């Protein structure tokens, strides 16, 4: 082991084996070096010079004064991330359902290498999140991001939500596996899922696609010029649960206690007037299943007044739900 190799190993020792709570002595360092190469002729002064050279280069090695005959101790603490910052990142990765088990394990292992081995052992998240064992979502996200930056289309197959095969435990592909070609506008995060928002080039309309249902994505390499597109300013305000739908003017009668939920979704500048003990809310929204699900989640605190077609649809949906539970027992 020559001087240059030894200096690199000294740095690696302080990076991986020491921190504020785990200082080491020169004897510990010499023992570590002896596992790598011959140190029989290595003097402590040479190791001290290595430590000083690292400090002079900007790799800070701290030490404490010798006390009561105890050996002097050294450690490295100036790291890119504090341990609590790494812990938050690990928790975020573990909590994200769209990141599969295998990818989660790889990322956590990489984050653990950004601190000492003793500290890395504490980076075990207590969060439990159901995940798929394997997945391609991070690769889809990367291709979508690059397609947006390079102003190129993205092509993929898309999984349906009906036709589940109980044997294979899979859903079929939509359009019999025909590839979608989409001019991507945005990548959006909503309800713990990534969504690709873009123009479906087969119909020329903006559509939302859940990234976890995308299969076999690839960037379209052709000579077709695609201008950068922008979403309408009120796109997300009108969209509910990322469903597409036709814009309509909506009038709701709501209880006062649900107003914070209304303001969170529609903004505090939404049109509102008091009507007795309730409030009338007027706004435009893309009417879709997602919008209906949102209204149903608010229960009896919200009543649809207009349009009549939506009110009728709500009544029919609620009656159908009540019919499911009309029987006293399922047996």
UniProtKB/TrEMBL annotation:
Boundaries of every WCX domain copy: 248-322
Alphabetized InterPro entries for the sequence: CBASS_pafABC_assoc_protein, WCX_dom, WYL_dom
Pfam family, one: WYL
Domain WYL: 140-216
Protein name: Uncharacterized protein
The species this protein was found in: Exiguobacterium chiriqhucha RW-2
């Amino acid at each position: 082991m020559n001087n240059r190799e030894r200096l690199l190993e000294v740095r690696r020792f302080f990076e991986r084996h020491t921190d504020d709570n785990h200082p080491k002595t020169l004897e510990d360092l010499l023992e570590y070096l002896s596992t790598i190469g011959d140190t029989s002729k290595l003097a402590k002064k040479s190791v001290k010079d290595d430590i000083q050279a690292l400090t002079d280069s900007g790799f800070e090695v701290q030490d404490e004064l010798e006390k009561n005959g105890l050996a002097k101790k050294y450690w490295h603490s100036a790291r890119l991330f504090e341990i609590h910052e790494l812990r938050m990142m690990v928790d975020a990765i573990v909590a994200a359902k769209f990141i599969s088990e295998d990818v989660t394990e790889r990322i956590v292992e990489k984050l653990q290498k950004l601190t000492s081995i003793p500290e890395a052992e504490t980076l075990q998240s207590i969060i439990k999140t159901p995940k798929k064992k394997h997945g391609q979502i991070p690769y889809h996200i990367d291709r979508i991001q690059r397609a947006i930056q390079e102003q190129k289309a993205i092509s993929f197959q898309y999984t349906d939500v009906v036709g589940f095969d109980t044997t294979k435990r899979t859903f079929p592909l939509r359009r019999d596996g025909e590839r979608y070609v989409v001019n991507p506008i945005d990548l959006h995060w909503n309800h713990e899922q990534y969504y690709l928002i873009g123009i479906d080039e087969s119909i020329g309309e903006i559509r939302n696609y859940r990234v976890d249902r995308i299969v076999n994505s690839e960037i379209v390499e052709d000579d077709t010029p695609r201008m950068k597109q922008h979403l309408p300013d009120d796109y997300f305000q009108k969209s509910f649960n990322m469903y597409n739908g036709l814009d309509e003017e909506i009038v709701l009668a709501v209880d006062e206690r649900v107003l914070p939920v209304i303001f969170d979704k529609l903004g505090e500048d939404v049109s509102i007037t008091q009507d007795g003990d309730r409030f009338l809310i007027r706004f435009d929204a893309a009417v879709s299943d997602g919008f209906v699900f949102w209204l149903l989640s608010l229960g009896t605190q919200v009543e649809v007044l207009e349009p009549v077609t939506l009110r009728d649809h709500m009544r029919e949906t609620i009656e159908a739900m009540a019919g499911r539970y009309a029987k006293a027992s399922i047996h």
